[in-house]
Amino acid sequence: MKLRATFATASILATLAPAPTFAADLVIMTNQGAVPGLKELGAAFSRKTGNHVTVLLAEGDELEKRLAAGTVDLVSQNPGPMQELVKRGKIVAGTVTPFQLAGLGLTVRTGATKPDIRTPEAYKSALLAAKSIGYSFGCSGTNVAAGIAQLGLTDQLKAKTTRTTAGPVSDYVARGEVEIGIQQTNIMVGVPGNDYVGPVPAPLDKPCESDVGLVANAKAPDAARAMIQFMISPDAAPLIRKTHAEPAPR
After folding, report:
1. Labelling 140: which of 79, 111, 167, 188 has CA 20 to 30 A away?
2. In the structure, what pLDDT confidence band is assigned to residue 22 with cuts at 50, 70 and 90?
3. Is residue 114 part of a domain?
4. 116 and 143 together in one domain
5. Does a cis peptide bond (omega within 30 degrees of 0) precede residue 238?
6. Count of CB atoms situated within 10 Å of the CB of 44
7. What is the pLDDT of residue 190?
8. How many whole angstroms separate alpha carbon 147 and alpha carbon 207?
């Protein structure tokens, strides 16, 4: 009788016990500008939920291959490229969420004299005085070029400008290939071989927005949606600021 009672109790407890949960292995593919913030956010989300988050830098053909293979859960891009992915059915439209704004900054090689860029006039003088300037073709490069056009310097700086394609601008600066590098602050501060000078002065500092979206064939869509919500939560704001960026306005 006692054995039957024990067995019955165990059966009831087994019925009431919650079903076991399994940690998801989330993969986020991103462009260069969102890597620092996503790594901070991914680590915090992992600690909070037990899900494992891998942040990978991949654009162009590599991103396309991984999307086709069904190995990606979330993608982070600037708004223009993100909308193209939505149009092609790669990203679930209603999930696209801005989470970060990264302003522009200027860097020089370690030990070099730091130019004064505190005002638009000083920034203009620094650009004219520089022997060479580097900036990218991405969002930051587009915004840097817009600022240079606003100063009326496009033609004057063209001959000494390098548009970078292989790695961040700070790599070119560290190798001595360009004297001044201009890109998103969050991927310039603390980079070896560089001395960060400061932000591009307003109103020439045009931040780049980073969005995140759910991949249509995500492996772990529920965990991925939870990650998106975490990325725009109050807990995420100090983590984004830690990487020298700002949370996107809600």
Report:
1. 111
2. low
3. yes
4. yes
5. no
6. 18
7. 93
8. 11
Which pLDDT does position 21 carry in this prediction? 53
* Host domain of residue 238: 20-100+209-247
**Residues 181-192, mean pLDDT to the nearest whole number:** 96
Prior bond of 203 cis (ω within 30°): yes
Domain containing 54 — which CATH number? Answer: 3.40.190.10
* Per-residue confidence (pLDDT) for residue 198, from 0 to 100: 97
Average pLDDT over the chain, rounded to an integer? 91
**Residue 13 resides in a domain:** no
Structural domain includes residue 10: no
C-beta separation of 49 from 229 below 8 A? no
Instruction: Note the pLDDT tens digit of each residue in 118-174.
Output: 999 999 999 999 999 999 988 999 999 999 999 999 999 999 999 998 889 999 999
Instruction: Tell me how far apart the alpha carbons of residues 193 and 174 are, in angstroms, rounded to a whole number.
Output: 5
Q: How far apart are CA 59 and CA 31, in angstroms?
A: 6
Residue 108 and residue 194 in one domain? yes
* Maximum separation of any 2 CA atoms in the chain, in Å: 96
Q: How far apart are CA 121 and CA 201, in angstroms?
A: 9
Question: Average pLDDT of 194-203?
Answer: 97
Asked whether the beta carbons of 43 and 238 are under 8 A apart, the reply is no
**Stated pTM of the model:** 0.85
User: How many domains is the chain built from?
Assistant: 2
52-57 β-sheet, strand order:
52-57, 25-30, 74-77, 208-214, 97-102, 246-247
- Residue 6 inside a domain? The answer is no
Beta bridge partners of 53: 26
